[in-house]
């Protein structure tokens, strides 16, 4: 008896998913570009990683990254050298 209700629920769910359209208004595709990995950039990434591992954060050390108001959100990049794929975005028009 329980399997009958489960089957009906699955059929209704599948029917609902196929009949309801999915819209992608407001979504924007950003082309990804692949950065070439050379020996120098890999060594630089390792050096930065080791430097970050050796330095432990101290209480209040990241005060420069705190937001000035509630509207600002600043996120510092810590290790961007390991990124092989990236997307270029532009803000506004010149």
TrEMBL record:
<protein>
    <submittedName>
        <fullName>Aspartic proteinase-like</fullName>
    </submittedName>
</protein>
<dbReference type="InterPro" id="IPR021109">
    <property type="entry name" value="Peptidase_aspartic_dom_sf"/>
</dbReference>
């Amino acid at each position: 008896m329980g399997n009958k209700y489960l089957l009906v629920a699955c059929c209704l769910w599948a029917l609902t998913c196929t009949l309801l359209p999915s819209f992608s208004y407001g979504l924007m595709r950003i082309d990804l570009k692949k950065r070439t990995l050379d020996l120098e950039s890999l060594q630089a990434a390792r050096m930065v990683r080791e430097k970050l591992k050796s330095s432990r954060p101290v209480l209040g050390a990241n005060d420069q990254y705190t937001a000035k108001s509630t509207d600002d959100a600043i996120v510092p990049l810590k290790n961007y050298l390991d990124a092989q794929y990236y997307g270029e975005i532009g803000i506004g028009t010149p």
